[in-house]
Design a protein that fits this description.
- By secondary structure, this protein is α/β, with parallel strands linked by helices.
- It has one domain: 2-Layer Sandwich (Transcription Regulator spoIIAA).
- It is built from three helices and five strands.
- The radius of gyration is 12 Å and the shape is globular.
């Protein structure tokens, strides 16, 4: 997994490339924890993400909960068919703002 952080004022985009697994999900979690207090608008760009395990889903859920508590906004953009299927099968489409890819 490769992570890129792009900030624009209170807006933060975290670009995720590759696969989120139980082994590397803590790296994403640490990145989110380190920047979420200074963010009002959190965007996860998953256009280059191939897969996420349940550990990765927990990071998305935790970020969503924190952002909701502070009246922030969270969105996942660029979800491909495989990633979208994971979000659908786990019910994440019911509470996470998800914009599908091309």
């Amino acid at each position: 997994m490769k992570l890129e952080k792009i900030t624009d004022g209170k807006k933060l985009v975290i670009k995720i490339e590759g696969e989120i697994t139980a082994v590397n999900a803590p790296e994403l979690n640490e990145l989110v924890d380190s920047v979420i207090d200074d963010t009002d608008n959190l965007i996860f760009d998953v256009s280059d993400m191939d897969y996420t395990s349940s550990a990765g889903l927990r990071v998305f859920l935790k970020a969503l909960q924190i952002m909701d508590e502070k009246d922030g906004y969270t969105e996942v953009v660029g979800a491909n068919d495989v990633v979208m299927e994971i979000f659908e099968e786990t019910g994440f489409v019911n509470f996470l703002n998800i914009a599908v890819g091309d």
